[in-house]
Structure formats: C-alpha cells, structure tokens
Amino acid sequence: MATMTKFQTNDKHRFLLNMGPQHPATHGVLRVILEMDGEYAMGIDPVLGYGHRMQEKMAESRVWQGFYPNTGRMDYVGAMPFNHGYVALIERMAGIEVPERAEYIRVITSEMNRISSHLLGIGAYVLDLGAFTPILYAFDDREDILDALEDITGSRLTYCYYRVGGVLKDIDDTFIKRTRAFIANFRKRIPMFNDLVTGNIIFIKRTEGVGIITADMARRYGATGPTLRGSGIPYDIRKSEPYSVYSHFDFDIPTGKNGDSLDRYNVRIMEMEQSLRIIEQALDKLPEGPVLAKPKKTKLQEGDCSFSVETARGVLTYYLVGDGSEVPYKLKIRVPSFSNLSLMEEMCTGMLIADLVSAMGSLDLVIPEIDR
Amino acid sequence: MSLVNDTLGKLKAGQFDVLESDYKKSGYHLEVKLNETQVQNFARMMYETEFYLDFVTAVHVAPCFQVVYQFAHFNEACRINAKAMANEAREIPTIADVFQGAEWHERETHDFYGVVFTGHPDLRTLLLSEEDADLKPLLKKEDKLVSVETITRKSEAEAEKKPVKKNIEE
Fold first, then answer.
1. Do A321 and B26 touch (CB under 8 A)?
2. pTM here?
3. What pLDDT score was predicted for residue B167?
4. Which residues contact B129 (CB under 8 A, 6 or more apart)?
5. A residues 147-186 lying closer than 8 A (beta carbon) to B
6. Left (φ > 0), alpha (ψ -120 to 50) or beta: where does A200 sit?
7. pLDDT of residue A318
8. pLDDT in tens, B80-137
9. Which residue from A29, A186, B71, B155 lies 20 to 30 Å from A170 (Cα-Cα)?
C-alpha cells in the first residue's frame, strides 16, 4: 500500500494524474483519470466515449442489410466474430438455414482471426511492459493470416465477409494451401515465442500476482473471454452454447489458476494452439457444396431475439427487437471489453502505476469496441 | 437442462412471472416479466444462484420504457432475459449495488434513453460528452414509436393469423 511520509497526514497530498486519451498504454483513445498517492493509484476513473459513433442508432435507421459493414468496425482487431454474431442473429430470427460448407468456412476464418487478434494482443501487451522485439515476431505471423484472409475477403482488417445464409465468396485451393502452411509454420513458432517471452524472468515479475480477478468479481462485472478464463473458469460460448458447427470439433478450453495477468497471457497463448486444432479439423472435414443460400427478402419478425458468440475478447451478444419491418426497432450490442474494463476500478485500486499498466494491458482492450 | 429447470422452479417459488422460451428461436431459455418493485429481489436472486450479468439496456415503447436485463451462467447454458417497465417518471431501481458491472450499463442506458436508475451511485454521462447529456439519441420520434404488443413475440396460434401492425396513434 501507499508509502507514509511525514507530509502525509491525510488525503491532502494526493494528486490527479491524467492517462490518455493519447497514451500508448491505453491502446487507443481511452482516458483514465488517476488519483495518485505517490506512485500508487488510489482512485481510478476511466473516461469513455472518445471513439463513440452511436452504432446502435445507425442500426435502427437503416434496413438490416445496411448494418453489415458496421459489424466489422467495432472490434477492428477481431472483426470476424462480430460479423458472425450479426448474421447468425438474423438467421435465428428468420429461421434461415446455412449450407454446411459456409459454416465451416466461417469457423476457419473466425479462428484465424482469433489467432491474429491474440497475436496483436500479446505483442502489444509485451510492448507495454517494455519488450520491443516480440511484437515484430507476432506481426510477422499475423501478416500470414492477414494475407490469406485478404485474398478471400478483400480486406485486411475490417472484414465484412459473412452474409445471412452463408459467406460472400468460396475459399479456393490457394487459401487452403496457405492456411495449412501457416498452421505448420506457426506450430513451430509458438515454442519460440514461449522461449522469448513466457519464461522470461522480467516478464514474470511484471505479471505474476498482478491484477487478480476472482470468480465472484467476474460474475459481478460480467467479465468473459480470456480475462475470465485466466481465473480458472472454463466458460466459452463455443462450448456452452455451441453455435455454427463448433460442436463438430474437438478442442479444449485453456484456463489459468490464479487469475492474474500472467494467467490471462498464458490463456491467450494456449488458445491459439486450440484455434490451430480447430482450423486443422475444419480443413480436413470441409464439405463440398454451395456457400450461400439463396437470399430471400427477409422481414424481422415481431419480438426480441438474442445471439451470443465468443470473440477473441469474450462474449458478444447482439440483442435485436423487431417490429415486423425490415428495419430493426432496437439493436443492443453487448461488447466484451466494456464489461472487462468496468472491473478495472476494483481490480487496480491501490496498485503501483507500473502494475496498473500491466494489469490493464492484460485485459486486451479494444477501445472502439467499448465506445461503439 | 437441469439448471434451466432448477432456475425455473426457484423463480416460480419466488413469485416471479417466468416462462420457458424456445432457445432456438429467441436465443434465451427463460423469460421473466418483472414489475418495478421486483427488480432488486430478482437481481439478488440471480447473484445468489451465481449468474453473471450479460447486459442491461432499454427499449423505447409507448407508454414508457422497457428495461431489459440479460443474465447467463458460467457452468451451464442458461440464459435469462428479464423485462421490466419503468414507471411514468422514467424511473426504475438500480441493480448496481448487487452487480457492480451494471453501473456502466445503466449509465449508458441513461445516456441514450434518459431512464433514471434510482439509487445509482453515479449517473454521469458515460459514452456521450457532457454537453450532449440531454440529447438522448435513442429516443424514438412519435411517428416511429410503437406499443409493447407490436414488439412482443406472437405465440404460434397468433402468428398464423395475419399480424396487423399497430401504430399507437390508431
């Protein structure tokens, strides 16, 4: 806890420290106002909304097809699952069947996107802690994924590839060859990454025991994704409410033990291995057939409908209320980072500022997703 | 499915208006209708049965707001959707004292709709800037506003009859 000096008789010697919105460790335009007592953060007030675009209003003011591009622009690092949640929601509402090949392609591309997102998350996190080299290796591997996905989706970051009833374009042999080459290559790179970072004594000292999240805390704040699984709770929407064809594959949910920053980092590393397993199985079993069902003119039925998917950062829920027209009456987008960040005040109060940066980085936040 | 049945029983014993819902169509297992006075008790019960808070939001309908709470469970697939109508003064009790994560969700809902969560520790603007505190961007214009019945799922028998879209002015 805070150091005591002869000047310090009460809270008079506290001062405010402004972190962000242009601070490198906040990964985007997040501002955190800290009430400092020396090096210790005794009060934390995150200020959101610098990247706010009112996505939910946009959804209400156009026909549902018009919202496709928006779904890729919230979590720009892991856009595929955001696409997935939206199309799957409309499919559930309208009762549209999706060709099996399309579902397989969705799983393959989503998992590749998850790996690329984790690579960026891990690379940037280690960079926050002062190690510059690992992000270069991480981006090198991430580049392979982006190149492969660019070929079939047309974009490198803000994907808009899924359509209600399937996917926009079929994958070809080049993509399959490239993906297999990536899997083989990346399997060799993970041990190298572990040698470089995971066992590093400085890295362990900076992360072990820092920013502990308990199960009760996760429940009260609704923390999900690797942030939750680091605390030892094997909760993953892909297993608990299996959507798409995830039930066809054999994969594990990696968890941590202590719920500290190191565990959250380790969970991300292990999740990449699991994603590789899923992609491999999906490529082996990939069925033939069409990839896009014939589009029908679809009106959104009266009533509400909800769909949750597991993004790279946790549970994403789209909650749509329809009034029988083509325009959604209401669309709520529950994003994982929003809930994950909300526990920061409780997690970080009383921490050294250097530890706070470490704990915040381990949440792997994407700010445009929080601000929507 | 045991958790769904367990929770259904517990909610019924707690005098809540609860219905089973078709997960394949609605995306949640149980649907709960709350009145204003039950919100706090419901949240406490969700906490005791170890549910986590997925989100809180509101829907602008005539005559007032429908506040929506969604909960899910870490152990088993059980998603609960609860709806409560805010009173005429646009007020509803907060659940942020039970689920601290609701604090931000309620602040956001207050930003967008102007629903006042009574007892909330800090209802400053969250995503909007302070100058836009009175903007309430998600309020519907009068010609777009519909009644609660229009946005309620029709039961199968009703759905067979041709649904008539009702506008509140009619």
1. no
2. 0.89
3. 52
4. A49
5. none
6. beta
7. 93
8. 999 998 888 888 999 999 999 899 999 999 989 989 998 888 888 888 888 888 888 8
9. A186
E-state strands within chain B: 17-20, 30-34, 51-60, 65-73, 80-85, 91-93, 116-118
Going by C-alpha positions, the residue among B32, B36, B89, B31 that lies closest to residue B63 is: B89
Judged by CB atoms within 8 Å, which residues 138-157 of B form the interface with A?
138, 146, 150-154
pLDDT of residue A332: 92
pLDDT grade for B169, boundaries at 50, 70 and 90: very low
Q: What is the dihedral of CA A24, A29, A30, A36, to 10 degrees?
A: 50
DSSP sequence for B122-156:
----SSS-GGGTTT-TTPPPTTT--BGGGGSPPPH
Q: B43-73: buried (b, 16+ CB within 10 Å) or exposed (e) per residue?
A: bebbbebebbbbbbbbbbbeebbbbbbbbbb
- Crossing angle of helices A100-128 and A173-193, in 10° steps, is 30
Interface of B with A in 1-20 (CB under 8 A): none
* CB contact at 8 A, B40 and B93: yes
Question: Do the Cβ atoms of B54 and A222 come within 8 Å?
Answer: yes
Instruction: Share the mean pLDDT of chain B.
Output: 84
A219 contacts B50? CB cut-off 8 A: yes
- Within 13 Å of residue A229, how many CA atoms lie on the same side as its CB? 23
- Assess B112–A contact: CB distance below 8 Å, yes or no: yes
Report how far residue A115's alpha carbon sits from residue A92's, in angstroms, rounded to the nearest whole number: 27
Residue A38 sits at φ, ψ, to 5 deg, of 65, -125
H/E stretch holding A33: strand A31-37
Q: How far is CA A229 from CA A41, A270, A275, in A?
A: 26, 11, 16
Chain segment B36-83, per-residue pLDDT in tens: 888 888 999 889 888 999 999 999 988 888 899 999 999 888 899 999
Question: What residues of chain A score a pLDDT lower than 70?
Answer: 1-12
- E strand segments, A197-356: 303-310, 315-322, 330-334, 351-352
Q: Does A343 touch chain B (CB under 8 A)?
A: yes
pLDDT of residue A115: 93
Tell whether A53 is within 8 A of chain B (Cβ). no
What does R_g of chain A's alpha carbons equal in angstroms? 21
Q: Do B101 and A241 touch (CB under 8 A)?
A: no
List CB contacts (< 8 A) between B50 and chain A: 219
DSSP B161: S
Contacts of A222 in chain B (CB under 8 A): 52-55, 99, 101
Q: What is the pLDDT of residue A273?
A: 92
Question: Which residue in A155, A154, A187 sits closest to A279, CA to CA?
Answer: A187
Q: Please report the ipTM that was assigned to this predicted complex.
A: 0.88
